[in-house]
Amino acid sequence: MTDPGTRPTATAVADAGGSAGEREVRRSTRSGMVGLAGAAVNGLLGFVLTVVIVRGLGPAGSGAMFTAIGVVAIMGVLCCAGADTALVWALPRRRTGRDGDAARLLPVALLPALLFTVVVAMTGVALSGALAPVLFDPGTREGAGLLRLAFGGLPFVVATTVLLAAVRAVRPVAALVAVQYVFVPAARPALVSAALLTGAGVTLAFAGWLAPIAVAVLVCVALLARPLGLGAGAALRPVGADWRTLWGFALPRAASATIDASSMWLTVLLTAALADQAEAGIIGAVGRYALAGLLIMQGLRVAVAPQLSRLLGQGRTGEAALVYRRITAVIIALSWPGYLLLAVFAPGFLRLFGAEFTAGAAAMVVLAGAMMVNSGTGIVQTLLLMSGSSGRHLLAAATGLLLNVTLAVLLIPPHGALGAAWAWTVGIVAENVIATVAARRVVGEPLITRSVLRAAAVAGTATAVLAAAGAAVAGRGVAGLFLTLGVAVLLGVALLLHPGVRRRARATAPTLLGRGPS
Question: Region (Disordered): which ranges (predicted)?
C-alpha cells in the first residue's frame, strides 16, 4: 500500500493518466459503435429516400422537392438559434435527476427558439406567394404550396431538433439513434412512396417527408422525462445564470450552425436561382452522395460530443485529444475508401438515379475531394464547440460561407452544377482548415499524429489501387463499380481467413468492446 505521505511518482501519474485516457477511448468506442450502426442505417434509408424522390419526380420535380427540403433545413437550424448544440455542451456539465439543475435548461433553450420560430413561420406563410418565383422555376405551379407547407412545419422541426439534443446529452446514444437515425428516416421513404403511388404531386410527397417529425416530438418528451426528472419534482424555473450560460454559447453557434447544416441546401437553392431546376436536381443528387459518407462522422460525433464536453469542462484536455485522434483515425479509415470510389466511379453511382443524372459526374469528383478533406479533419468542429469556443467556430464557418457564396455567384451561371460543386468545395476546405488551427490552439494538444496519418495513407493507397484497377478493366460505369466492390469483398474475406489477421482481431476486440485485457 502506498504511504499516504508519499508523493506519487511521475511514472505513477503517467500510468494513471494513460489508464484514464484508455478508459475514455474505450467509452467513446462503445458509443461510437452504436453511432456508426445508426449512421449506416440512416445512410441506407437516406439513399432509398433519394432514389424514391429522383425516380418518382425526375430532375425538375426532385429539384423542387429538394428546394423545399432545403428551406426547412436552413430555416430550421436558423430558428434553433444554436440552442440544440448549447444543450449538448451544457447538460453533461449539470446534475440530472429530480434534485439536479439540468432540467432548468430545457425551457431556457426551448421557449425562445419556439417563439422565434412561430414568428418566422407566420411570416414565411404570408410571403410564400412572393418567394415562390424566386426559388422555383416559373412553370412550377406547386411552389407556393410547398413553401407554405415548409414554413408551417417549422415549429415541429425546431421542437424536435432541440429535444433530440437534450436526449443526446442525457441518454445513452442508442436512444438518439432509435429516433433520429432509424424511425424518422425509415418513415420518410415509406410515406413519400405512398404519396407518389397514389399519383399525388410534389406537395403531398413533401408532406410525407415532414410527417414523422410530429411523432418524434412526443417520443423525445417521453425519453427525457426520467433522466431530467420531468413530472417528478425537478425544478424547471431557470435562474438568471442559466440564461446567460446557455445563450452566451448558443448565439454565436446559431449562425455557424445555420451555415453548417444548410451548406448543401444553400448550394441547391443558389443553383436553382442562378441556373435552373434541372441543374439544382443534379447537384442535389450529387450532394446526397457526397454527404452520405459524412454519416459515419456524424454517427461518431453524436456519440462522443457529451463525453468531450465533460472532459474539456474538467480540464482533461489530453484525454479529450486522445479520443479525438482515435475517432478521427476511424473516420478516415471508413470514409476515404467510399469517397475515392465516388470519385473514380462517379458515372456509375449517378447512373443508379437515372441516365440524366450522369451529367453531374465531374461535380461528384470535385465534391468527393472536398469531403476527403472534411472527413480527414475528423470531429474537429465538435472538439472546438465542446471546448466552449463557439465564437471561433463561427469565424471558420462564416469564412467558408463567404467563399462559397461568392464563388457560386461567379461559377454557377456559366457552369451549372459543376460550378456549384467548386464553390462548395472551396468553402468546405477553408472552414475545416481554420477550425483545425483554432482547435489546436484552444485544446493545446497535438491533433494530427502519425497514427492519424498512417490511417489516411493505408486507406487512401489501398482503395486508389483497387479502384484504378477496376476502372481499367471494366470502366467507370456501373460494371466497373460492381466489379471493384466484388473484388473488395473477396479481399476482405481472404484477409479475415488469414491466421495472423484473426489473431490481431481477437486481440483488438476487448478494447473495441470497452473491456481491458483479460
Answer: 1-24
pLDDT per residue as tens digits for the range 189-208: 999 999 888 877 788 889 99
DSSP state of 177: I
Tell me, what's the pLDDT at 14? 40
- Mention every residue, 6+ apart, whose C-beta is less than 8 A from residue 71: 135, 147, 150, 151, 265, 269
Distance CA 294, CA 39 (A): 9
Helix 10-80 to helix 240-261 angle (10° resolution) is: 80
pLDDT at 71 over 90: no
Which amino acid type is present at position 174?
A: A
Inter-residue contact 378 to 327 (CB < 8 Å): yes
Q: Which positions ≥6 away from 392 have C-beta within 8 Å? A: 384, 435, 438, 442
277-324 pLDDT tens trace: 788 888 888 887 888 777 778 777 777 877 888 888 888 888 888 888
The C-alpha cell 432509424 sits at: 182
Residue 444, Cβ density class (10 Å: 0-12 exposed, 13-18 middle, ≥19 buried): exposed
SS3 assignment, position 398: helix
Report the sign of the C-alpha dihedral through residues 437, 439, 440, 446, in that order. negative
Among residues 87, 259, 251, 257, the alpha carbon closest in space to that of 163 is found at: 87
pLDDT band of residue 29 (cuts 50, 70, 90) is: low
Which residues contact residue 482 at a Cβ distance below 8 angstroms, ignoring those fewer than 6 apart? 348
Nearest by Cα to 248 from 96, 81, 93: 81
Q: What is the DSSP string of 246-285?
A: HHHHHHHHHHHHHHHHTHHHHHHHHHHHHS-HHHHHHHHH
Q: In terms of Cα–Cα distance, which of 3, 217, 13 is closest to 114?
A: 217
Q: Which phi and psi (to 5°) does residue 321 adopt?
A: -65, -35
Cα separation of 230 and 232, whole Å?
5
Contacts of 10 (CB under 8 A, 6+ apart): none
Handedness of CA 491, 496, 501, 505 (dihedral sign): positive
